Amino acid sequence: MKIICIGRNYSEHAKELGNAIPDKPVIFMKPDTAVLKGNDFYIPEFSNDVHYELEIVVKISKGGKYIQKETAHKHYEEIGLGIDFTARDLQSDLKSKGLPWELAKGFDGSAVVGNFFKKENYNLESLNFSLLKNKDKVQDGNSKDMIFSIDDIITFVSQYFTLRVGDLIFTGTPEGVGKVSENDVLEAYLENEKVLDVRIM
Q1: Residue among 15, 34, 146 nearest 79 (CA)
Q2: How many CB atoms lie under 10 A from the CB of residue 55?
Q3: Which one of 28, 81, 133, 154 has the fewest CB atoms closer than 10 angstroms to its CB?
Q4: Average pLDDT value over all residues in the chain
Q5: How many Cβ atoms are within 10 Å of 42's Cβ, its own excluded?
């Protein structure tokens, strides 16, 4: 299983970090060891500025290569929410040197993945999702604001990587990302249903 992540897929988030709005999907990867086991996230010792990034996550149900947009919807049956934890201080340092982001994005426990749900139960073109930190709403997103849709992403990614059953795609985060501190509690909602929660240790 591989974890493919899309950066800067919401224009307001790109702007809040001072990044240009991309004309093609921005891709990075997380290893399978990044998946958080349990509900406790431990801030790594190498960062003083870990940020939450809530995202819609797609689970690939049918593998493929060079997938066309008109058939992309046949390659996934379930969606859910996940949190892409990012060591922002480390990422900023790596970016300033023109280096890859993986150390800041792919460390152990940096990918929180909740339960998955049948996509036919949702309107994927206008899917609401939100994140609460200590009961205060900090992110409020809707899939209609994606620069690149789920089907666009699958089409683009499959030109470079063969997709396999069980692969996960993190589709990007809306604006409102921010720092976590010890004892914070994060709760993620898909529409009006809480689908995951994480304690920061």
Answers
A1: 146
A2: 27
A3: 28
A4: 95
A5: 13
